[in-house]
Amino acid sequence: MKNSPTPRPSFIDRHGSLIVLCVAAVIFLCGIISPPSLLDDVDAVHGASARTMLRSGDWITAHINGVVYLDKAPLTYWLIAASYAVFGIHDWAARLPIALAAIAVCWLTERIGTWAFSRRAGFFAGLAAASCIGLYLFTRILIPEVLLTFTVALSLWAFLRLEEPQEEYGEGHQRRWRVLFGVGLGAGLLLKGLLGLVAPAGASFFYLLASRRDRKSTRLNS
User: Fold this and answer.
1) What is the tens place of the pLDDT at every residue in 180-198?
2) Using CA atoms, how far apart are residues 54 and 190, in angstroms rounded to an integer?
3) Is the bond leading into 36 cis (omega within 30 degrees of zero)?
4) pLDDT digits (tens, 9 = 90+) for 38-84
5) 8 in the Ramachandran plot: left (φ > 0), alpha (ψ -120 to 50) or beta?
6) How far is CA 94 from the centre of its chain?
7) CA separation for the pair 104, 165 (Å, rounded)
8) Residue 25: is it exposed, middle or buried by C-beta count within 10 angstroms (0-12/13-18/19+)?
9) What are phi and psi of 63, to 5 degrees?
10) Are the beta carbons of 120 and 20 closer than 8 angstroms?
11) Using H for helix, E for strand and C for coil, what is the string for the chain?
12) Which residues, other chains included, contact 188 with Cβ-Cβ below 8 Å and sequence gap of 6+?
């Protein structure tokens, strides 16, 4: 009896990640070049602080109109200032790091869905994130929430890859996931202070407590 041929992977299975990236890039990169300009207090303060950082060469202490401004963590300013340095001081250049973070969130959503469920589930999850109006609106304001979403999601995904290894995904590279977990925590700290560190670290801690309790009870009942 002949073995039945292995079904060929569908177009979505082969190119799901690329499709999600392209759709997200069109939505978020086109969005940053449209009006309005940086008008409100948050946009103006953060954009001007990054501009002052670039022009003064002081990348340690943020200033607004010559006054030290330490109300926020610095990574958002660093990213905007770096974008200014490459592309010039423009409204769209200020929004570019957040737009790229939104694209990364969509890609990461697709990757997590594929890992946890299936390629098709990951594909539609990534498209759902790309078409989310809330995510789009947050790329219109110079606040770190989209960047923080990416760092928290990256930390938690790395943590799950360490705790729930799957052989089919080649989980032998444990060091890579440890590094990504630490990078996500550190970036979150530089974006939002302790909140960016406590949120993923706390979720990981309580996950360990719950999962190990379940495993212990399963061993006792077996």
Assistant:
1) 999 999 999 999 988 889 9
2) 18
3) yes
4) 777 778 888 889 999 999 999 988 888 888 888 888 999 999 999 99
5) beta
6) 17
7) 23
8) middle
9) -135, 150
10) no
11) CCCCCCCCCCHHHHHHHHHHHHHHHHHHHHHCCCCCCCCCHHHHHHHHHHHHHHHHCCCCCCEECCEECCCCCCHHHHHHHHHHHHHCCCHHHHHHHHHHHHHHHHHHHHHHHHHHCCHHHHHHHHHHHHCCHHHHHHCCCCCCHHHHHHHHHHHHHHHHHHHCCCHHHCCCCHHHHHHHHHHHHHHHHHHHCHHHHHHHHHHHHHHHHHHHHHHHHHHHHC
12) 148, 151, 152, 155, 195, 196, 197, 199, 200
Identity (one letter) of the amino acid at 128?
A
Q: Is 152 exposed, middle or buried (0-12, 13-18, 19+ CB in 10 A)?
A: buried
